Amino acid sequence: MRREELAENLIPLIGKLYRDHGVVTSIHGHHLINLSATGVIAAHDRAADMGHPAIALEQTASVLEALLAAAPAPSSIDIARVAAAVAASEADVLSALFAEIPDTEAGSTDVVLYGFGRIGRLLARILIAQAGNGHGLRLRAIVVRRGSGNDLDKRASLLLRDSVHGPFSGSVSVDHEANVLIANGVRVQVIYSDDPAATDYTSYGIHDAVVVDNTGRWRDEEGLMQHLRSPGVSRVLLTAPGKTPLKNIVHGINDDTIHSTDRILSAASCTTNAITPVLKALDDAYGVARGHVETVHSFTNDQNLIDNFHKGDRRGRSAVLNMVITETGAAKAVAKALPQLEGKLTGSSIRVPTPDVSLAILNLTLQRAVTRDEVNDYLRRVSLHSPLRQQIDYVESPEIVSTDFVGSHRAGIVDGLATVADGVNLTLYVWYDNEYGYSCQVVRVLERMAGIHPIVIPARERVLAETLPA
To answer: Parallel, antiparallel, or unpaired for β 233-238 and 288-298?
Structure first.
């Protein structure tokens, strides 16, 4: 009961920091915003379960109170890492850390979701949860084709209820007269259209918006350029692999190549986002000579529930009754973010009867020999301390299965107990929530495009390959 009381006392501090100061708090990368008391406790316990240094609720309270007293500017602050820094030093660590936050006026960027399927609805949930004090990314509208007479009510219901990710955290209502969904007080215009070039967004008060195309209908520059013909749109982000010459962005890997002049970008695929950060870390430390990526992937909406015609090979067979061998371009797509791996990777995929969370098996030949303990320790430290902390997580548990990763914010999670190392031959198992984890990566790319990603405190240091055992 004592822990529940402590957790309940933390909730208003977390909320006030977020609403009044735009401060996103987390425990080893796991957000604390909008959690219940049991959720706050679980976030602290999860850190220890995942091999991260433990943090007591009392320590979190001390850091949160100090943060409120300092009244910092918008930022992303890892409470566990700040607490560890405070415990390790007698100096005024908090003042030094908060001094890193620039005193700048927070801006905002309008976002339009074109398509409202699995990824579109999860993006909406994330953007609404991060609405905070009105700065940052602002979800202004969704664009869909009208499906029925009660279309608006059905869209609201799909946002409110999700069989995989659970209920929406808050309330969703409908303003039928204005064609608006109201989620936790955020008004989201619903626009009915099947032509990406035909909507005047400025008539809805939307300007310089980023359109996130979730339909997958257009994957080339010519097709996506249609969005830019609609007044009020300045940029487009595709949530699928983009065809050359579009930049395929994996946040944490090549998001530094995003420029203000880029008008159309791709956020690549869920699998590419899951494996590229791990491959980057391994290539930096050991060198990747060649490899094969096999993905055991949950079924998707493009498959049939029961046997029926499908233009793709094998995908016409029932998704819920069969394992289905199919192709994946993820291995080749890695080279679009990591050019040094061009031509070194092959890939294939097996669709399996689960609705979410997938597993990538990396069979690699490295340029130097490794041991299981060495590579696991390195990837664990990468997940804790490196600039890839948002992308890579690490777990060691003999009981963990796919559903344990539903809702993970990370692009991929290395299963350390499954690692196999034999000289230069390495096999890694990387779990990933191909819906939510990918959606988090998309939001990070959006923040980078908008230039509003909050400063990270403490800064993420690089885990150097030179620190590894010879």
So the answer is: unpaired
Using left for φ > 0, alpha for ψ between -120 and 50, and beta otherwise, residue 54 falls in beta
Q: Are residues 144 and 284 in the same domain?
A: no
Number of domains in the chain: 3
What are 385's two structure tokens? 């301390």
Which H helix or E strand runs over 421?
strand 420-432
Helix, strand, coil % (nearest 5) of the chain?
35, 25, 40
Same domain, 309 and 423: yes
Give residue 241's region: left, alpha or beta (phi > 0; psi -120 to 50). beta
Confidence of residue 89 (pLDDT cuts 50, 70, 90): low
- The helix (H) or strand (E) run that includes residue 285 is helix 270-285
In a domain, 444, yes or no: no
**Tens digit of each residue's pLDDT (9 = 90 or more) over 298-310:** 999 889 999 999 9
Assess whether 406 and 314 both reside in one domain.
yes
**Whether pLDDT at 463 is above 60:** no
**Last residue of one domain, picked from the residues 68, 98, 128:** 98
**Residue 270 designated active-site:** yes
Are residue 305 and residue 419 in the same domain, yes or no?
yes
Q: Angle at the Cα of 429 (from 428 to 435), degrees rounded to 5?
A: 140
Strand-pairing partners, residue 23, are 75
Encoded tokens for 345:
């990777």
Structure tokens at 187: 């008004």
Burial readout 86-97 (b: 16 or more C-beta within 10 A, e: otherwise): beeeeeebbeeb
- Which amino acid, residue 316? G
The pLDDT tens digits for 422-441 are 999 999 999 999 999 999 99
The answer as to whether 462 is a domain residue is no
15 within domain boundaries = yes
One domain for residues 305 and 429: yes
Residue 455 clears pLDDT 80, i.e. is over it: no
pTM of the predicted protein model: 0.88
292 and 359 in a common domain: yes
Q: What is the pLDDT of residue 134?
A: 60
Average pLDDT, the chain: 89
Same domain, 174 and 204: yes
**Among residues 32, 270, 384, 456, which one is catalytic?**
270
Structural domain boundaries enclosing 395: 271-433
Place of tokens 């979730």: 214
In the block, residue with structure tokens 């016409």: 316
Query: Which amino acid is present at 464?
Result: L
Instruction: Give the neighbor-by-neighbor strand order of the sheet with 455-457.
Output: 30-31, 23-27, 75-78, 455-457
113 and 236 in contact (C-beta within 8 Å)?
no
3-state secondary structure of 361: strand
